[in-house]
């Protein structure tokens, strides 16, 4: 590892990153990690401290879409442009990325974070607990090539129900589930275990589950409430960032993410297959290889629902997410969208022909 980049190890730099950037780094280039993003500006952690990062016009022009822009967790190549400013020249190829569909009607990918080692999906022992939401997060995380670690916060509440831990495990096959309490400290050592020095984690969850409170407990301070990360606007003023990276006392890194009110998936069939592995296992026994687990006969998945070995709400959750991902795929792929329209036109033509035949025959 180059001597002049050794200090970046605290922020996740390692020999693998060094090797992957050897042919990208030119004399005068700086390597930095994006620790916050706000309105087109970026807070970078460089060897000499923090700088505000801005994109070049060429970068903006060549970027295929907004997903190509730097996200929190990205490593970037930059050049100095003043005592507090750096110009971002490019993004180092990502090891992974955590994405969702942009909120709203447009079919656009929003990258929440990049180069993450562990994803904590947070819920709580209160009215926020929702297994269908955990399922959505599980698909999102598996699309990034990881297994979610579900944290059920507020274990100090009187209405704690251990059955909810079992429910969370049931919808997170292959993953893990832990009870935690930001108030009493229960489970915090387990969270720290996932985050040794140089490793990066992210908290995902809706507003009110206690993400920031848990982070403050891990930091041993009220830093998330009282001293938020700020990004210079180049005119001596500052604005507050909402998605940002913090370093824990033991050296682990945590990205705190705003509460997600809308979790629209940006994933493919393979992520759904992994998140619903028990349904994928059952599907091998369906009569037809292309069984949709809907109206077909000989469906092993529906048979399991009827026998009670597969919960009906788990099956319904699967169908809903698969329908959502199929729609997303059609919108992304013009050829598939055209094929989908062609198939439905064919179905409608056949239905109209059948109706005409019945009318003709007096049926």
Give an account of the 3D structure.
By secondary structure, the chain is α/β, with parallel strands linked by helices. The protein has 3 domains: 89 residues, OB fold (Dihydrolipoamide Acetyltransferase, E2P) (Beta Barrel), CATH 2.40.50; 160 residues, Rossmann fold; 92 residues, Probable gtpase engc, domain 3 (Ribonucleotide Reductase Protein R1, domain 1, Orthogonal Bundle), CATH 1.10.40. 34% of the residues lie in helices and 23% in strands. It has 12 helices and 15 strands. The strands form 3 sheets. The protein has a 5-stranded mixed barrel with strand order 1-2-3-5-4. It has a two-stranded antiparallel sheet with strand order 6-7. Helix 3 packs across helix 8 and helix 11 packs across helix 12. It is globular. About 4% of the residues have low confidence.
């Amino acid at each position: 590892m180059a001597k002049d980049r050794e200090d970046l190890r605290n922020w996740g730099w390692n020999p693998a990153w060094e090797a992957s950037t050897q042919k990208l780094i030119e004399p005068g280039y700086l390597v930095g990690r994006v620790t916050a993003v706000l309105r087109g500006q970026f807070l970078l952690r460089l060897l000499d401290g923090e700088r505000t990062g801005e994109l070049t016009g060429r970068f903006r022009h060549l970027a295929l879409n907004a997903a190509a822009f730097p996200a929190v967790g990205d490593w970037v190549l930059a050049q100095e442009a003043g005592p507090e400013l750096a110009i971002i020249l490019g993004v180092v190829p990502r090891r992974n990325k955590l994405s969702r569909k942009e909120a709203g009607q447009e079919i656009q990918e929003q990258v929440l974070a990049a180069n993450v080692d562990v994803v904590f999906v947070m819920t709580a022992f209160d009215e926020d607990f929702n297994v269908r939401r955990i399922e959505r997060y599980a698909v999102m995380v598996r699309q990034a090539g990881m297994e979610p670690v579900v944290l059920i916060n507020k274990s100090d509440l009187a209405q704690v129900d251990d059955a909810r831990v079992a429910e969370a495990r049931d919808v997170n096959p292959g993953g893990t589930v832990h009870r935690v309490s930001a108030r009493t400290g229960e489970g915090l050592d387990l969270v720290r275990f996932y985050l040794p020095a140089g490793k990066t984690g992210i908290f995902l969850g809706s507003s009110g589950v206690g993400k920031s409170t848990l982070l403050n407990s891990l930091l041993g301070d009220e830093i998330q409430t009282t001293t938020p990360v700020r990004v210079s606007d180049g005119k001596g003023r500052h604005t507050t960032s909402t998605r940002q990276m913090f370093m824990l006392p033991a050296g682990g890194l945590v990205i705190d993410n705003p509460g997600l009110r809308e979790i629209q998936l940006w994933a493919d069939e393979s992520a759904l297959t992994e998140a619903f592995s028990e349904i994928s296992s059952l599907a091998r026994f369906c009569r037809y290889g292309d069984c949709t687990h809907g109206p077909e006969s000989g469906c092993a998945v529906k048979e399991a629902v009827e026998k009670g070995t597969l919960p009906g709400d788990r099956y319904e959750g699967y169908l809903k997410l698969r329908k959502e991902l199929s729609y997303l795929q059609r919108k992304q792929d013009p050829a598939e969208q055209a094929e989908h329209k062609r198939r439905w036109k064919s179905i409608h033509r056949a239905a109209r022909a059948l109706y005409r035949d019945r009318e003709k025959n007096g049926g």
